[in-house]
Amino acid sequence: MQLKKLEIQGFKSFANKIEINFESGITGVVGPNGSGKSNISDSIRWVLGEQSAKTLRGSKMEDVIFSGAADRKPLGMAEVSITLDNSSETLPIDYSEVRITRRVYRSGDSEYFLNKSSCRLKDVRELLMDTGIGKDGYSIIGQGKIDEILSNKSEDRRQIFEEAAGIVKYKTRKDEAEKK
Ligand code: ATP
Ligand code: MG
């Protein structure tokens, strides 16, 4: 499965709408310090459902909204969309292309969309479960992540293997059934 496109508007340093198209092969992002390279990977974590402001290098979720610059007023909303090629049907959904969108307002309200239809965070989570793509998946290896995996408790490491093995979905269903 391939990451096809990332659209960012009002997220962190990206006040204007930007669109990044990913071709097959490796994409490298280069730029001076503070130019927004890490903000791009933050935007991917965020659209996949990240709830921790700290993981996104902020102190509260509102910090992801463009906070203004010398020549530009702050914005009231941040929106990120990620488009994944699903022609291999890795994601259990009947679309060959899947676009996930997340939007947040200063009030703190977050909205999610799957191929333009409003949905819940839970739907996004379930869709990505066992694919390695979700916010806790192994598709984003941040700085220090390898060390973390090596020094983690064995139960934490087990989660990574369970996601790779594709059984998180069944465990989650079992846990939910037991709660009822
Ligand atoms: P480095 O090479 O040092 O890792 P980088 O290219 O990864 O740099 P980022 O960390 O992505 O840079 O970007 C940091 C910039 O984003 C800072 O200038 C910071 O002011 C800006 N920034 C972060 N959050 C916001 C926000 N909410 N509104 C406006 N600008 C923001
Ligand atoms: Mg950086």
Automatic annotation (TrEMBL):
Organism of this sequence: Alkaliphilus oremlandii (strain OhILAs)
Shown stretch of the complete protein: 1 to 180 of 1194
Function: Required for chromosome condensation and partitioning.
Domain notes: Contains large globular domains required for ATP hydrolysis at each terminus and a third globular domain forming a flexible hinge near the middle of the molecule. These domains are separated by coiled-coil structures.
UniProt subunit comment: Homodimer.
Compartments where found: Cytoplasm
Protein name in UniProt: Chromosome partition protein Smc
Family designation: Belongs to the SMC family.
Amino-acid positions noted as binding ATP in the UniProt annotation, renumbered to this chain: 32-39
